[in-house]
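Deviations from the work plan: none for this task. Representative record:
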Amino acid sequence: MKKLLIILMLAFMCSSVARADDSDGALSALKLLRSLAEKGNSNAQNIIGAMYFQGNNGVPQDYVRAYMWFNFAARNGNRDGGKARDIIASKMTRAEIDKAQDMVRECVKKKYKNCD
Amino acid sequence: MKKLLLILVLAVMCSSLARAGDYDDAAKAYQKRDYVTALTFFFPLADQGHATAQFNLGVMHENGIGVIKDYKKSVDWYRMAAEQGYVKAQFNLALMYEGGNWVKQDYVLAHMWYNLAASKGDKSGTNNRDIVASQMTPAQIAEAQKMAKECEKKNYKNCD
């Protein structure tokens, strides 16, 4: 849980590049993060996961997408990502997890490009 | 009820920041409690698709300010503004669905609208989304999140 908090804080710090209530700014931050995440940067992948998990910063809360991005970070050897993914999984239905895992496979095939 | 009052106050405060022209006149009249004048400006603006005017009409109908209380109309105005991405209307519409007083109670739809408001940085939206989520099953939350995603894609149109 501590790790998740740290990740959430990171996401907040990151989004404070844009103002917290400036969702357009947060959306462009997301764009920037995405380009990093597509290159396999696991920290960026964690931050995107946290943005989807919090859902108050440019994107609505979406456990499936949060799971997907944390999973990528985990696959890239990031332990925080793995922990966060497992915490989110505990809030998800079996069907949702299956869907998230399908999306992970699809996204890997596409080399992280246009995964949403 | 407190929240609604807060929103009402916000709406009045906010309206003083709005753009010049008819809306400004309406807002000024509203602040002076000259509701007849406010309404004569708000109605045509709202019909032209002015989201803030629509939202204000929602508040006025919900609370019976200058008009006879009419929750159905209030929900309709909120929905029109919410479909244009107006955050405070999305939040109020969610309140309606959560309370189930004037529409059929529906936590999934409440979660969806709160979540969409939250995504734009609305703190009350985030807060209420998480409260309503604590009373929902994982399957309901999954459904609500899926609907929010789809609603965002449809540009908030015809989501409920």
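Confidence is low (pLDDT under 50) at residues 13-20 of chain B.
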